[in-house]
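Re-run with default settings, no changes from the original entry. Doing this only to confirm the output is reproducible before filing.
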Amino acid sequence: MEKEQLLQELSEKINTGKINREEVLAYFEAVNETKEGGIMKETRSTMSFSVTKLLYGLGAVIVVVGIVALVSQVWSSLGSSGHIIITLGIGILTAVLGSILLKSRPEDNIGIVFHFIGGVLIPGGAVVTLSEMNIDLLTPWPFAIIFGVVFALYLLINAIQKNIILMFFAITNGTIFIYLTTESITSSLIYNSDKLYAYLTMAVGASYLLLAHAFREGRNKKLVRALCLFGVTGFLGAAFSQVYDSVLWQVSYFVVVAGGLALSVYMRSRIILIMGALFLVAHIIYITSEYFADSIGWPISLVILGFLFIGLGYVSININRKYIAN
């Protein structure tokens, strides 16, 4: 109703000569040009930012590859101090430069590039340093200590500067530290290491999912998808590795996957939904081949399995449409 009234008023003003048609047309053309200009400006800004990030990433990878190639060429001609300087020294230097640039020029993201280079070089440089100090590297303890120290270092820097690249390296080094520490403690024990690492991977996967939930808002939001992918894959994959020798796991795995699908709705994550559906398909195939492959009902089982997959796809699409996409 308001629209009709406005159009009626505009028509009356045009008829009375207070406004002419040319003025109206010129006004609407100016408005359209302003909107199009804003959209084009925003698009150019987004494209420029994407290209900048691409160049940053490509440059960082090339720098790391170049440093590795340089080290391999001059390694034999350097002494112990040279080995330490060219690995650990360069890593620490680039990390320090990254911290300085993050503080002085946070809008350019150039500090992230130097932190990436440092994060790749520092652990390897620390291993080289221990090797040059003639410390026994045949046990996992030295490596566990190295990654533990690097993990604590990145936690400290992240607490000060609060940047996504620092949290990424903290999570990465922390994960490696957990596995190396577990190997260091259990290497001398008589224990089924396969089951131990399966349960450890489930715990790590669950912790990734908890971090993804905690990072939904804030500066670490861009890590959520990666954490969901590695978290759900680690958890469901490790759990699936236990179904081969255990009837209990074969039954309970359906409950585990159902929990994963419910979690995808709660966290509104397509990645968790897709991975949960894929692992459910894998488990159904395993159960079918394990118990029905040699029976006369195998062809019928295949038909039922096909319909189950169709139904699972339909349910997944509806879950995504109703609870995740919206």
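The chain has three domains: 1-66, 78-190, 209-326. The radius of gyration is 29 Å.
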